[in-house]
Amino acid sequence: MSAVRRFIGSPEGVIGALLLLVLAAIALLAPLLFPGDPLRIAGRPLLVPFADPAFPLGTDRLGRNVLAGLVHGARASLLVGIAAALVAVAIGAIIGTLAGFAGGLVDEALMRVVDAFQIVPGFLLALAFVSVAQPTLPVVIFAIALGAWTGPARLARAEVLSIRERDYVASARIIGMHPLEIALREVLPNAIPPVLALSAVIVAGAVLTEAALSFLGLGDPNIVTWGSMIAEGRSVLRSAPYLSIVPGLALVATVIGVYLFGEGLATMLARRDRA
Amino acid sequence: MNRALRLVGRRAISSIPVLLIVVVGTFFLLESASGDAVDAYLVSIGGGDAALVAQLRQSYGLDQSALSRLWLYLGSLLRFDLGWSVGFNRPIAGLILERLPNTLYLMGSATALSFVFGTLLGIVAGAKPGSLRDRVLSIGSLALYAVPSFWLGLVLSITFAVQLRWFPTSGIETIASGKEGLDRALDIARHLVLPVSALALIYLALFLRLMRAGMAEIWRLDFVRAARAKGLAPSRIVLRHVARNALLPVVTMLGLQAASMLGGSVVIESVFAIPGFGRLAQEAVGLRDAPLLMGIIVVSALLVICVNIVIDLIYVLLDPRVGASEVSS
Amino acid sequence: MTALLHLTELSVTYPRQAEPALDAVSLDIAPGEKLAIIGESGSGKSTLALALAGLLPRGARLSGNITWPSLGRSARAGADFGMVFQDPGASLNPVLRIGEQVAEAAQRHLGLDWEKAGILALELLGRVRIPDPELAMRAYPHQFSGGQRQRIAIAAAIAARPRLLIADEATSALDVLVQAEIVALFRDLCAADGMALILITHDIALAASLADRIAVMHQARLVELAPALQLVETPQADYTRHLLGTHIDLTDTPRIGRTVP
Ligand SMILES: Nc1ncnc2c1ncn2[C@@H]1O[C@H](COP(=O)(O)OP(=O)(O)OP(=O)(O)O)[C@@H](O)[C@H]1O
Ligand SMILES: [Mg+2]
């Protein structure tokens, strides 16, 4: 309860949470708001925004409803962002905890792998991965997670190393708990809060990476995403720039929401630490 | 100086196993692709008979086992030979070397500009935590950092290239302009203004945020209180005591961001049609040219390692506590 | 004789706190006087020091008066008073050379250029008995021991020749031998320069051996203020007696033990 109060105490966090709630509602209600395939041709091509009440944001080059695309695009962005962050944090937390707990050669080897993932540009890695597998949503999610798990891994490892030395782990050892059991029951739960704060940053990064991938035509071609809408608008950039501008604004709003929410989380954690 | 040299040596040596992991990992990742460059090539020339396929596979060494090819690849890497690009029908090393400078101009200027202006604005914000200008800069930088670079590139392009016609929309230089020397450099600079701005603005936001967050931490430390108790000029406390210390993690971040900036250049180069390294990666994907993609990844990893060694050297100059035995990581 | 420093009814309340951390404290300090402030943890000693120095955190409410009769104006930090803090490791900037950190107050307040301020810093490092001051000028804080860092911090605090040095538990983090050296240093510096000293400490024996007068703080209030010997031998306030009592229990110092019934 007091955690909630601490969160509400930071205006950034509340604004971010509200933004995300609205976006999530839009994403969830998309099939109700705009039933049918948002990629289908719905009207005259290149209708300007606010001209036809049936198409408040106009239509694109092929006559697809821009607002429908925007609303359905929220699904892809949020889904990919959250799923990629979950995968990245899960991989990172497991590997980091393992490295921190095992120590020695295992630690050394795992950390070199972390280093390797850190010196390869995550976006290039995602590019390579998507080109090898097929560009479906799960592949895109995993490709993005591949470039994002090193942060949580380092954090989890550092956290484990610091917690490891504390008393209760020593006493758990004396009771005769298996090291892995200690890792799962005592250490991991303590390492989770700071990792959570980091995950907001990862969600934001994943939303942006997904947009960039689909902008380059490497996303799932069967679903509408904001990145693909921006790319789609490029061919008529001179005559209808809003086709690229509007989905970009949606992206910016989403990422701002995630960052603000993350700031709220961080403030909450900081207050908890000080208390 | 000795300390620095030893540091470079040690960093270079410790990078070898990491690079090896990158090479082997990428090799097997690309190996798992269905269809190789020969397939892609055959599709592009409209098919061919079995004899041609076998001959092509043999000439690119694709008929051997994966392990022996990996071994051969590692051997040729030692000779700085990255293999042959099927898609471009050229040696990969030459191709990359030709494209790399454009990307380095782009990244180098974007990094320098964003670092300088980002830290300066960060100092402006962090000099007075909680003040109006701090809040404005914090919120502004948060919003800016949320902007996708490629979209910012498009918006800048619509505004300054399409509407205002101040800058060219695409390319790295005017084609067949016959310009030489300084004229040519100026021409390239004009082409780079918009892509560099798109990248730099976003990283500026990052460095600004890092710097002000770092300063907010430092303000609480004892030595700052001691400096205030000495009655020093506010500017001296802000710059020499607070900002000077807050700079250290920002410099570390500069190294950590090198990989991400290189990745970001892929999309920016695509937006502005700059024939750079990142564009090459996109082309390699389109051509299903696995060896080329492999070469690009290996070279970018090398580049990131080099950047990080340089950053470490700078860090040693900035932080007297980092001895020869302990290096920030 | 005009007092160096005059406090009347000084109260401080920290933000979001109901109770004041310093409650109507009045006292005088004469030029060259050595005043010790003792009291248990949380009694407001540091708050008093920070209030004097104008270093209270933003939002803290201050009432009452601080005047400097012998100056005839308000005091300037660094120039009229210097401060030394508890943690010698943390009170020096880790990335600046010692020479700069000792010289900067002199450069600021004495109107010296950096070169002259550097010469002064070199002399100061010698006075606080840092071995090889020439070398120390170019070194960084992490290259010194805790006691040496505290000497450097003292040199930096007195660089602009302040009339008052405020030492907030400046010896608590150090081991006993080093503590004794720092105390000796305080005594020498005060004697040589006629500088006044406010020594905040938990250690009654230390207070009694160094200070001219001792102030006892308890729950944000000043409960007793008397010449050192008098306070130790005939304490007036119950709390002071209690404090002396616990002190005997802990260390069983015979000189003090004899005077307590
Ligand atoms: N920044 C602050 N905000 C709120 N309360 C504070 C702050 N600093 C100190 N206090 C409170 O004010 C009271 C007096 O603190 P102060 O630091 O002056 O005590 P002290 O006598 O120096 O103790 P110690 O011997 O532990 O240093 C304490 O109850 C403390 O919790
Ligand atoms: Mg105190």
UniProtKB/TrEMBL annotation, chain A:
Residues 74-262 form the ABC transmembrane type-1 domain. The keyword Nucleotide-binding does not apply. It is found in: Cell membrane. One of its GO terms (biological process) is peptide transport. InterPro entries: BP-dependent_transpt_permease, MetI-like, MetI-like_sf. Keywords: Cell membrane, Membrane, Peptide transport, Protein transport, Transmembrane, Transmembrane helix, Transport. It is a multi-pass membrane protein. Belongs to the binding-protein-dependent transport system permease family. This is Peptide/nickel transport system permease protein.
Automatic annotation (TrEMBL), chain B:
It comes from the Bacteria. The chain crosses the membrane at residues 12-30, 104-124, 136-162, 192-211, 246-272, 292-318. It is found in: Cell membrane. Keywords: Cell membrane, Membrane, Transmembrane, Transmembrane helix, Transport. It is a multi-pass membrane protein. Belongs to the binding-protein-dependent transport system permease family. The keyword Heme does not apply. This is Peptide/nickel transport system permease protein. Residues 100-315 form the ABC transmembrane type-1 domain. Its main location: membrane.
UniProtKB/TrEMBL annotation, chain C:
The keyword Isomerase does not apply. GO terms for molecular function: ATP binding; ATP hydrolysis activity. InterPro entries: AAA+_ATPase, ABC_Ni/Peptide_Import, ABC_transporter-like_ATP-bd, ABC_transporter-like_CS, P-loop_NTPase. Its main location: membrane. Keywords: ATP-binding, Cell membrane, Membrane, Nucleotide-binding, Transport. It is found in: Cell inner membrane. Residues 5-244 form the ABC transporter domain. It is a peripheral membrane protein. The keyword Thylakoid does not apply. GO terms for cellular component: plasma membrane. CDD domains: ABC_NikE_OppD_transporters. Belongs to the ABC transporter superfamily. This is Peptide/nickel transport system ATP-binding protein. It comes from Devosia enhydra.
